[in-house]
Amino acid sequence: MVRRLLCLLLVCGALLVGCADSGMATVRESRLPVEARRTLALIDKGGPFPYEKDGSVFGNYERKLPQHRRGYYHEYTVPTPGSRDRGARRIVTGEGDETYYTADHYESFKEVLR
After folding, report:
1. pLDDT digits (tens, 9 = 90+) for 73-86
2. pTM of the predicted structure, to 2 decimals
3. Judging by DSSP bridges, how do beta strands 110-113 and 56-57 pair with one another?
4. Of 93, 109, 107, whose CA–CA distance to 47 is shortest?
5. I need a surface site. Which of 42, 74, 82, 105 has the fewest CB within 10 A?
6. Rounded Cα–Cα distance for residues 112 and 102 (Å)
7. Residue 40 falls in which region: left (phi positive, over 0), alpha (psi -120 to 50) or beta
8. What are 48-59's pLDDT values in tens digits?
9. Which residues are annotated as catalytic?
10. 17 pLDDT exceeds 50?
């Protein structure tokens, strides 16, 4: 009886998590490019950051991320090998500990599973 109840609770929990899913693609941190993992390590340490714009407010003008007040999101550069500028790759963090990765300069995002 207890075993059946536990199974039922697990199934209900899985259904609830599935319903809360935003539908956004995800990527495990370990599957990110090495440069993105280095950027995440710098974010976790609080810097120092190699680019002046790292840590600046991300406006979410493309509305690809969940809507929040201005200042909720911040962006960080993920270096692109061979690029002469900052490149197109970024990490965007939210105040609720969300982490997103874009490889195409905000055209699409993947939520990073840490």
Report:
1. 999 999 999 999 99
2. 0.80
3. unpaired
4. 93
5. 82
6. 10
7. alpha
8. 999 999 999 999
9. 75, 105
10. no
DSSP result, the chain: -HHHHHHHHHHHHHHHHHHH-----EEEGGGS-HHHHHHHHHHHHT---SSTTTTEEP--TT--S----TTSEEEEE---TT-SSS-S-EEEEETTS-EEEESSTTS--EEEE-
Amino acid, single-letter form, for residue 40: L
Cα(57)–Cα(47) distance, rounded to whole angstroms?
16
The residue assigned the tokens 């370990």 is 30
The first and second tokens of residue 44, run together, are 């976790």
Work out the burial of residue 42: count CB atoms within 10 Å of its CB; fewer than 13 is exposed, 13-18 middle, 19 or more buried: middle
CA dist 70 and 64 (Å) reads 14
pLDDT at position 71? 98
Q: Which two tokens stand for residue 94?
A: 């939210």
Whether the Cβ atoms of residue 96 and residue 109 lie closer than 8 Å to each other: no
What's at 72, amino acid-wise? Y
